[in-house]
Amino acid sequence: MKSLIISLQLKTSEISRGILNAISFRSSVYLLAVMLSTIVVTSCTDTSQDNFESEKLSIKTNSKVYENKLTELTVFFGEVMKDRSALEELYSFAEVGESYGDINYSLKDLFEGGVAPTSKKESAIVSAFRNTAANMRTTENAIDADELIQFIIDNDISVLAPYLVEDFNINEIDELTVSWWTQDFEAENFALDENWKGSTKAVLIPLGESSGIGQALKDALEGEYFLANDEWALENPTLVLGAFEDDSDIELLNVQNVIQNPNTNARTASGPVTLCNATNKTTQNLTVRMPAFRLDENIRAWPNPNRIYLWVAHGDFAFGTNGLPTVSPNVNAPFANFEVTRREASIKRWKVTPASFILSSWNPDSDNMHIVWGCTKTDLDIDVDGTIKASQSGVSGSLTVKVALRESVELESSLSFDKCFTIRNNVNSLNQGFGFYGNTNYPVYAFNRIRAYFTIESF
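Above: the chain's sequence. Below: its structure in token form.
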């Protein structure tokens, strides 16, 4: 259990065509984090229990022992997938979770419960797992099913298959790529190249043969494997096993998706928005919405899904009791930990934003809004500086904003938008170099590898 606290500061630079320049999204990331861990220590007088706990600990702390056992499990799982009912159940996992069509399921939950999540009947995978191991018991490739199941439970093993269901017909698959992910391998490669796209060690399992796993496992353990990645998985049926980071319980807002047609006008009933006056001010209170966004490519390294975070800051202007101008900050987190699957990113699919607005009240005194995007990453934290501005009656003020966020979130983009510039683009339908959303007249903006558009309403 972790308690995660990270500082995010917003800082803007000079306006260029109304938009402030982006802060370098990689060089400005400082590895600053506070991790509060709760460690529970128990004692037991049962010697056998002590030995069992010691064995579990040795696997978790010895990366080589862990990877060898994960490799054995992965190759054996490929053998299990030769059972048609088990393969069909794997495909059914695409109906479970946040994104239909994407397999991301806990094998720990499956083996602890023994029930398929869709049919609510006895799991075909669990049955095939035990039956396959039993059939191999008298061979030289004997597998201890109970030992592997305990390994799954102890290490919270899950299965990912980002492209399998949507891109490959189950009736046409004659071989399956089975691959295993470890955080150590990912960390080693990021240390060599911070722009590494991700890959996992893998072997091929022919589904039409029941020849056991001896040679495939021997090859994998001796380094006779290849590396699978997005490009490979787009062309070849691929699944990945591993103890993946679980960010699903990190929530900032409880929001609900609303299905929206991308080719219709997204503006709701509201008053017309007018351009700023000659002094670059508006008298209107505005609501800013971001009905949809998409990724231009995958941000998180293979094979993990992209989990996206959004923060928006603006300032309110006031005169203090001493007569001096002050700016009070307003920082909003419209959504956090929102999943964009690897396939959705690869085909640039627009996603409905899980928030009704990003600014509920952009008042006349507030002169800009600062938008920060982040995406989960194993070993980076986000720390950005910026300034929000507000003015009234010719008097202006600014303020540096600090916001508490989370660790393991990589900064993707930090941009400040001048209010009058943003209004003018929407009212006059001015292309910002990235076209318009669907068949609407709303210009699309680029936030590094993220694309989004705004609607603005007065109230």
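Residues 111 and 126 are 6 Å apart (CA to CA).
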